[in-house]
Prior knowledge:
By secondary structure, this protein is an alpha+beta fold. Helix content is about 35%, strand content about 25%.
Amino acid sequence: MKELSLHILDIVQNSIKAEATLIEIIIIEDLKKDLLTIEITDNGKGMNKDLLKKATDPFVTTRVTRRVGLGLSLLKATAQQCEGNMLVESEEGMGTKIHTTFQHSHIDRAPLGSMVDTLITLLIESEEESGEVKNERTVDYIYKHQVNDQSFIFDTREVKKILEGTPINDLAVLEWIKDYLKENLERLVKS
Ligand SMILES: Nc1ncnc2c1ncn2[C@@H]1O[C@H](COP(=O)(O)OP(=O)(O)O)[C@@H](O)[C@H]1O
Ligand SMILES: [Mg+2]
């Protein structure tokens, strides 16, 4: 059983490949409704109607190397096994939204896993330096995690303001962010 945080990492990689500069990850755990919702929205290049229709087909990929696409179709199958579903909205040149639901208590629902690890992995990649020059494109993330009526929001644009130019993937910064996320997400899940 694959942890959902790994699916999220995989789906966000699509957004990065689509040249998104802002990626929003929203997780809502509504225990009263017994519903887990995961929504990933990006401002990347989007998909045309034809690709959008085919995007959740396991044999569709615009990749030219490696395996066939599995990311979206696998997540869709995973959601459908848990009385949920996955919807993809996308507009060329505007961006993409992947909306996924699961019955929270479903016996086959994979655990969420470590969102701290997923976020740290994404942050490490978010500002890659190639030699002397820093990539022009950096990716920002908004992470919102809600459990019933408690929520936690992490916005890298806010963090970068405090950092005053120190890269967000500086090792000491990452250590600090990791502790900060861990503390807040543990508190949220306990609430
Ligand atoms: N966020 C996105 N923005 C633009 N295109 C996307 C996005 N997510 C998926 N796609 C398109 O859908 C295809 C299938 O995605 P996926 O199932 O993850 O397989 P893969 O990434 O291995 O190709 C991708 O190759 C890409 O063309
Ligand atoms: Mg993919």
